């Protein structure tokens, strides 16, 4: 895909994980998880880098021919890590895309949709994705606090993100809600203008962020414009060894999709 601006991916990847230590290096269909994420990123963007604080991940990325950057082990978020990596590589990219290192099933079209936000609406400072909840998932999926929801204005800019169901549908039973409104699930892929990425890492945690434990509320509460592209495609993150087993069974069908 040719963009009207230069866009690169920086993929934060840590070895330490409470639920699944070393998951970026876990094997999935003959390749490591991090290699699969990297290959998806370079298929959509001008270039990609893995930002890590672990030499094992760094060496593994270099071994398959990827680009890697060693960063501090003191970062509290992936956003901080990719901001440091962007400074190290001294990129001239207009836009930096943050693709999670445990998302081997991210779709190329989703990456491109996030980048296109900056073309379609030049006032966009940050872009992310929203996916409509479907009827087959039911109210239980909609009410899951681990699946953040978002609402936008009429131009597609985020108004709010929440672990609660937003909006509340007055006058209807909860089993009618999904049929009454298009609820959006937040997909945690972000793209930032390069200068904005550096700015947001200097912001202190905001009250709404601390209440909901959602980093994007810090940016929103500080007045940054977050554009939301919609996608009908699901992503599958890998948080546990059990997730890896499920991912292996999905791999054959996914490889044929885009």
Provide the descriptors you would attach to this structure in a database record.
258 residues; 9-stranded mixed beta sheet; 34% helix; alpha/beta
Structure in words:
The chain is α/β, with parallel strands linked by helices and 258 residues long. 34% of the residues lie in helices and 21% in strands. It is built from ten helices and eleven strands. Strands 1, 4, 5, 6, 7, 8, 9, 10 and 11 form a nine-stranded mixed β-sheet that branches. A hairpin with a 2-residue loop joins strand 2 (27-28) and strand 3. The chain is globular. The relative contact order is 0.17. The model has no long low-confidence stretch (mean pLDDT 92).
Describe the structure in brief.
Helix content is 34%, strand content 21%. With 258 residues, the chain is of the alpha/beta class.
What is the average of the pLDDT values?
92
Give the class from helix and strand content and strand pairing: alpha/beta
Sheet having the most strands? 9 strands, mixed
Number of strands: 11
Which percent range fits the helix content?
A: 25-40%
**Count, helices:** 10
Radius of gyration: 18 Å
Task: Report the sheet-strand fraction.
Answer: 15-25%
Low-confidence stretches: none
Q: How does the overall form come out from the CA principal axes?
A: globular
Written as H for each helix and E for each strand, in order along the chain, the element string is EEEHEHEHEHEHEEHEHHHEH
How widely separated are the two ends? 13 Å
């Amino acid at each position: 895909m040719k963009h009207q601006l230069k866009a690169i991916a920086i993929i934060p990847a840590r070895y330490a994980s409470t639920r699944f230590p070393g998951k970026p290096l876990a094997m999935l269909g003959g390749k490591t998880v991090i290699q699969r994420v990297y290959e998806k990123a370079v298929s959509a963007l001008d270039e990609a880098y893995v930002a890590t604080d672990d030499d094992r991940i760094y060496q593994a990325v270099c071994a398959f021919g990827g680009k890697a950057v060693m960063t501090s082990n003191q970062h509290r978020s992936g956003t901080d890590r990719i901001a440091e990596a962007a400074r190290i590589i001294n990129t001239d990219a207009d836009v930096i895309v943050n693709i999670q290192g445990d998302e081997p099933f991210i779709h190329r079209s989703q990456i491109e949709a996030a980048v296109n936000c900056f073309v379609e609406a030049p006032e966009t400072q940050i872009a992310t994705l929203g996916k409509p909840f479907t009827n087959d998932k039911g109210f239980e999926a909609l009410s899951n606090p681990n699946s953040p929801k978002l609402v936008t204005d009429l131009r597609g800019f985020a108004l709010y993100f929440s672990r609660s169901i937003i909006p509340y549908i007055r006058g209807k039973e909860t089993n009618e809600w999904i049929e009454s409104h298009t609820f959006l699930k937040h997909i945690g892929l972000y793209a930032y203008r390069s200068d904005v990425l550096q700015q947001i890492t200097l912001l202190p945690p905001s009250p709404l962020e601390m209440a909901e434990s959602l980093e994007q509320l810090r940016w929103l509460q500080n007045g940054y414009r977050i554009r939301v592209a919609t996608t009908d495609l699901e992503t599958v993150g890998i948080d546990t060894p059990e997730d890896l087993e499920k991912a292996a069974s999905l791999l054959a069908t996914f490889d044929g999709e885009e």
